Amino acid sequence: MEYICWILLDSAMNNLKKLLLGLHLQSSSFPLVSRSGRIRKLVAEHRDSDISRMELLNLPGGADSFDLAAKFCYGINFEITSSNVAQLCCVSDFLEMTEEYSKDNLGSRAEAYLDSVVCKSLEMCVEVLQWCENLLPLADELKIVSRCTDAIASKACVEQIASSFSRLEYSSSGRLHMNKQAKCDGDWWIEDLSVLRIDLYQRVIATMKCRGVRPESIGASLVDYAQKFLAKKPSLWNASTQPKVDLVVGSVGNEQRLMVETITSLLPTEKVAVPISFLFGLLRTAVMLDCTVACRLDLERRIASQLEMATLDDLLIPSFRHAGDTLFDVDTVHRILVNFSQQDDSEDDVEDVSAYESDSPCSPSQSSLLKVSKLLDNYLAEIAADANLKLTKFMVIADSLPAYARTNHDGLYRAIDIYLKAHQGLSDPEKKRLCKLIDFQKLSQEAGAHAAQNERLPLQSIVQVLYFEQVRLRNALLCSYPDDDHKPMYQSWRISSGALSAAMSPRDNYASLRRENRELKLELARLRMRLNDLEKDHVSMKRDIEKSSSYKFIWSFSKKLGRLNFFGHSSSRASTSPSKQSQRTDSKIIENMSSRYSR
């Protein structure tokens, strides 16, 4: 904005016009001319013309600044404060009110006040920077901004050091240590900086980084600044609201976009400097405002570095794209997971190889993988009900972590089951592809029991569940009696669904799979009943140990071992022929459970 200040020579002073035209410029009767080199030059240029006024274009500070300069020239008292010192510095430079034209001129007095008073106080420096917003770029050329930013950074460092000393205390052993639980009072300046415009705030934070202010303090200042300005738009900060992009961008404009990008560039590199919930809020705003790709990728990388601290609500980023798209922005979450996996790999390369291969549950990388895998499974279960979520996207996100990240597949099975329920139009090959993500050996007993009766799963997956459940039960029985000669029976079984003859018709294949499924269910029930019998015999044997002598115990133990027949087989060498006891148990199971397991 161009300010035009008129010097009305004929109306301001009665005889000033005649005297100026007479070129009595050196007389002390004309203080405005004698103290301002610019006005003196303008009058000299128009000595031969009958001028009645002079124009001062682009006067910094406008008419208010000129009014202060005129008062100074004519000896009218006024106070130099932090609210007008920036204007006085700029207007004195514009009017050339320097020591060359008058001793103790306005420029030198304003500079002295700025250096000796303003730069000693952080609050006054912040106020001066506020007034400099309308005085740029002249205020920057006069180094008013740089002097104030340097003073603010220095004061923050001093407060930081003083606060650190105040938290020092002696321990019981007499050693000096830092009390981390004590409240840090050295960051009181955070709220003061939040009144600055984003460009000046950026310069202050950059100077603080160079001076060595704590990253935690800088991060807290960034959080406070972003919440004060961005939280004014609830739709930008609240994940529950999903307004349309065009309306949001039209109301916010480039100013909010620039603010998000600037705050992102100022974020400290340390992981714990800002909370991850703030990073997710910033990323959600960046996605909504369509910030630059570099800004969004930087936020995604920072989030991935501490993803184990995130919650499910953080990952649920609304989709602000087209109406037919998914409810949540799954592409952004997928990129975050990829960054997390790549970062985990890079950290593992740096760490000691022996420490990595030790599979220690206390390993930081392993613990973070476990947390992120549980978080991912919960996220998959949340987005699985979305009818617009494509199978490929769901599978890509589910498979974004390495295989060893999940020690238990119950959460993944639950998410896949929800997806199958919400997408009943999937073909059998698509269901098989989806269920291949599940390692049925890593299902718990409850999840395995649910999967064995889940009609939404493909038949091949149900057979695998039953097979691994059978193997688990048999191995449990063998572990109870390690001296027995029987071997795990899973060696004599195979999942024939993966090895069916290519010459068989699909109908024969289906009939064969159903028959094997029924046989496996019967075998599972039979093993459970045998396990109960073994537990009863074990209790009886313990009772014999307490009541009988050693000889009687050995005799009773040998007799009971002779009666035991593992897995319904007469001997280890004839493992394929069932015993009479096994046949009687099978017939009993078939009579009692045929209605339950038949299809």
Automatic annotation (TrEMBL):
KW Cell cycle (keyword) present: no
Natural source organism: Nelumbo nucifera (Sacred lotus)
Coiled coil: 510-544
Domain NPH3, residue spans: 187-472
Originating gene: LOC104589382
Top-level division of the source organism's lineage: Eukaryota
Pfam families: NPH3
Name of protein: BTB/POZ domain-containing protein At5g48800-like isoform X2
Keyword tags: Coiled coil, Ubl conjugation pathway
Family under the similarity heading: Belongs to the NPH3 family.
Region described as Disordered: 569-599
InterPro entries from the UniProt entry: NPH3/RPT2-like, NPH3_dom, SKP1/BTB/POZ_sf
PROSITE patterns to which the protein is assigned, alphabetical: NPH3
